[in-house]
Amino acid sequence: MTESNWPPSQAETLAQLDQWWHELEQTLDGWSEAQMTGPRDAVGWSVKDHLSHLMVWEAGIVALLAKQPRFAAMGFDASAPRTLTEDEMNAHVQQRFAATALAEVRDGLRRTHAALRAGIEAMPPDDLLKGYGHFQPDETAADSRRPVLSWIFGNSSGHFEEHLPWMRAIAESHSL
């Protein structure tokens, strides 16, 4: 999501977050467990793998907003952003949740999303425009001055928007 597409207010940020969450949930509710756990895309991901991925990256933003170690909340040590590529981190997430039941992944995603929404509601509206470094002063991010709003969208509604077409393609390849 580009800066020009960011909602100008906290209320609009929450509304956009709710819109994409609703679309994600409505889409998932239309699929069977077999559609979400059986078929895989070209890189070997199921819909469930995408959901665990979304959950973990959103959990990182929950921690970011609470000024807690982001990568620890995602299940990594502090060196992960320096020692692992994003693809390697994603592969670790997929492996970590491979044996986790779909219902547990969906419940975890719901809880994580609710925590994100609550964190945004609780923060002073002006904090949405503060940089990543304000929330994680001890972490060297690639762009620590970029507004935290961009990190929120990149790991929540913008992330849902990115993954929904992939998940649809996977689920629709296994129609029941």
Overview of this protein structure:
- By secondary structure, the protein is mostly helical.
- The chain is 63% helix and 0% strand.
- The termini are far apart.
Features:
176 residues; mainly alpha; Four Helix Bundle (Hemerythrin (Met), subunit A); 63% helix; globular
Number of beta-strand segments: 0
Contiguous low-pLDDT stretches (5 residues minimum) are none
Determine the number of helices (DSSP H or I, runs of at least 4 residues).
Answer: 10
Proportion of residues in β-strands: under 5%
CATH fold node name: Four Helix Bundle (Hemerythrin (Met), subunit A)
Structural classification: mainly alpha
Q: What distance lies between the first and last C-alpha atoms, to the nearest angstrom? A: 34 Å
Q: What is the element string, with H for helices and E for strands?
A: HHHHHHHHHH
Q: How can the largest sheet be summarized?
A: none
How many discrete domains?
1
How would the global form be characterised? globular
Q: Can you identify the CATH superfamily?
A: dinb family like domain
